[in-house]
Amino acid sequence: MTDTQWVYLFSEVEQAEEHVGNDWEKVRELLGGKGANLAEMTRINLPVPAGFTVTTEACNAYLEAGNNFPTGMWEQELDAMKGVEEQTGKKFGDPSNPLLVSCRSGAKFSMPGMMDTVLNIGLNDKTAASLAKIRDDESFVYDSYRRLVQMFGSVVLNISDVIFEDVLDEYKEEKGVKLDTDLTTADWKAITEKFKVIIREHKGFDFPQDPYEQLRLATEAVFTSWFGKRAVDYRNAAGISHDLGTAVNIVTMVFGNMGSDSGTGVAFTRDPATGEKIIYGDYLINAQGEDVVAGIRNTEKIENLGNDLPQAYKEFIDICDQLEAHYKEMQDVEFTIENRKLWMLQTRDGKRTAKAAVKIAIDMANEGLISKEEAVMRVTPEQVDTLLHPQFDDNAKNEAESSGKLYASGVNASPGAAVGQIYFDADKSEHMALEEGKDVIMVRPFTKPDDVHGMLAAKGILTSEGGATSHAAVVARQFGVPCVVGAAEIRIDLENLQMDVGGNVVKEGDWISVDGTSGQVFLGRIPTIEPILEEQTDLLTLLTWADAITAVPGMRVSPEGWPTAGLQVWANADYPADARRARSYGAIGIGLCRTEHMFFEQERLPIVQRMILSDSSEERQAALSELLPYQRSDFEGLFEAMDGCPVIIRLIDPPLHEFLPAEEELLEEVITMRVKGETAGLAEKEELLGKVQAMHESNPMMGLRGVRLSIYMPEIVEMQVRAIFEASANQTLAGVSVKPEVMIPLTGTVKELEWIQPRLIRIANQVMEEKNITFDYKFGTMIEIPRAAVTATEIAEVAEFFSFGTNDLTQMTFGYSRDDAERNFLIQYVEEGILPENPFQTLDQEGVGRLMEFSVNDGRATRPDLEVGICGEHGGDPASIEFCHLIGNNYVSCSPFRVPIARLAAAHAAIKHKGVIVPAN
Ligand code: PEP
Ligand code: MG
């Protein structure tokens, strides 16, 4: 015998809580989400059919033991069946009053339709015959029996479901009927017998008549479905751990297909697309649950249930309110009404669009259900990302509509704009997207869990059947793929790989545009536009709440000089227009202005080239004097846009050859001219080639760039500093509050700073003297080279601020070229698990992060009020932002477009680690 409790009745939730130390998350882990919530609904006296849960621990033990039940589990399952028999007054396998159950999977996190379900377990030749008499409804009972044999054959015995469906279709055709409901008892009996033959022919044994054998095999099938291909694919995509296992829920059957006073449905307690506070769902009278979810029959809107079955509907609405008040979350529920009696079969936190997530969080906080902090935590940075995704340009859409390009309309299941070429099956969609690099719209009559790999690879999804709760809709919403479902005018011809609306045929590979926000489908390609954040008032409210939370002093407990509030969010912006966008997106500083970008503009590049190639100091100065006004006016624009905020301007960084024509191209031109005997301009070209060749470096990223270039050729940065301070002075005189911070890139030793910085400060002071004005400024450096990180103590003697250039710091710490690694080995490294993530996207906390942590600690030991930020790509990555919070950064700086994401991520870090002592030790 064993002490482990593998099985819990729904009425035993307290025992489960006790087993895991009264932690609800752990109860969910043990009983799975479905089982835990069925038990919870039982506890708060909602109408849940009697049943029990076999734990995820049992599943894991079963799989680990090479598909063998752990000791004692089956005995406990049999005992639990006795408990259910007592609660229902029915007996499993007893023809005089048979108990029927369903066997359903249920992992900690919902994986819609990814694992297996078997209904009507307990029916066999004898119980079916007697039940038909008891219920006085032979047709219903034999329909149920054939469903059991069919599901058992496909789910438990792995016979393709198509074989069963074909028999059903042939039979209907033979009888000249269209609907299942038109078939008679005799038909169902005959079909059941045919199904049994299929099992015998495929498996060499009979469909088991022993209900306990059915139960045992169904339990095993659910356990093993945890590692079924579609479940594994789904978990990989959703980031769900493979070692959680699934629970098995055995639930007394209730029937929604017992006539016009029965039905079944699914609903959300708020609209999952918009977040509006209305019950949103579908139902079918005289149907079983699978019929609604599969989206095969066209469903009714939930509000009409009030007309069909008013009493049950009223009770259902009350229960929805009760569930929201209890869970303080929008719920996704399943119910069945059997002869007017309502039964709740499931509740779980409802999946929703990003837009709905924001609205629901704000509304629930305003309703007093949750706090503002909880509201902020309810929305993920990824959801904010989705809200900043492209939408169709309204004008282009109207134009498309008036020129007859509107092809069809359906349910707007998952918002966003998608443009792509159509493919009609999941494998091909995946292939075209991943192997051929095409933008794919996957088109299907409806989708099934087997299709998920294609859906994930697609830019958009279109189905002709199903509603807002169909499989396609749920999965698309979860992964942020734009999706239109139930576009019923479209006739999809899977054989000829085309679709048709009134003779207008679109073939495989043709382009369409799918608007998941409006539900419209257009022919051809419609241009998309970036969404306007200013118009997204709910998101703006949430971000304002996030900022307020982050700004509270004491979010971090720190020594003197260290930040005590959370992270600020600054932006990387090179031009005034970028800065304005960054500010409107909520940035309160510029963390990186890459000045050299300004050198690439058409009218400036020739001057820059002249400056680089000049032979004498005079020539160089002349070119620099020409560049100065350009730089000054750029900086003036930047300061104006960021009035009152710090602006970090980085001095020139890249190797100079980046500004010159490519060596190979020049060589080719020179050779061609020589061969053709062209002499005009040849000498100049040859001279240019000579100079470019002389500047050639084998490893330019590790060569003459950054501060090395400034020391080698100080005139450039001297001009830049003059431009920065002249711009600052001019704007100060114009009434703008400027906070310039000059950043020296790629420092490796403090001696470099000691050499260059005093010269530059001299220029700064000179300008202030000339303009007869003073203002505060800072000089600081980027930490991009491991040696700088390791010698931060000394570097902070000179630098007044650090900014982690984690693009270079990652490159130099790993020794991976940031320009080449991703196209060579890096992706393979991630796939093979050698690296957990691409370190150029998500900070490598153990390596690069350690260097950062040392730098902050050592730097602040020298200069307690050292300002510390990050301006590499990682500054917009939520996991990296959390790390920056924990090591005591003052701010993160990222692309303007990622500022809203970073604001939310900064608040998440602050809330999650509230009061944590920084630096930790
Ligand atoms: C960095 O290296 O992280 C950085 C921000 O500088 P750049 O990308 O311009 O080298
Ligand atoms: Mg860099």
Give a written overview of the molecule:
The chain is α/β, with parallel strands linked by helices and 921 residues long. An eight-stranded mixed beta sheet has the order 14-24-23-16-17-18-19-15. An eight-stranded parallel beta sheet has the order 33-32-31-30-29-28-27-34. It is elongated, with a radius of gyration of 33 Å. The mean pLDDT is 92. Residues 592, 594, 653, 784, 805-808, 871-872 line the site of phosphoenolpyruvate.
Shape category:
elongated
Please tally the β strands and state the result.
Answer: 35
**Over all CA atoms, what is the radius of gyration?**
33 Å
- In whole angstroms, the N-to-C terminal distance is 47 Å
Compute the average pLDDT: 92
- Strand arrangement across the biggest beta sheet: 14-24-23-16-17-18-19-15
Structural class, judged by helices and strands? Answer: alpha/beta
Helix segment tally: 37
Main beta-sheet strand count, sense and barrel state: 8 strands, mixed
Helix % is 40-55%
Distinct ligands:
phosphoenolpyruvate, magnesium ion
| Unreliable stretches | none
Please report which band the strand proportion falls in: under 5%, 5-15%, 15-25%, 25-35%, 35-45% or over 45%. Answer: 15-25%
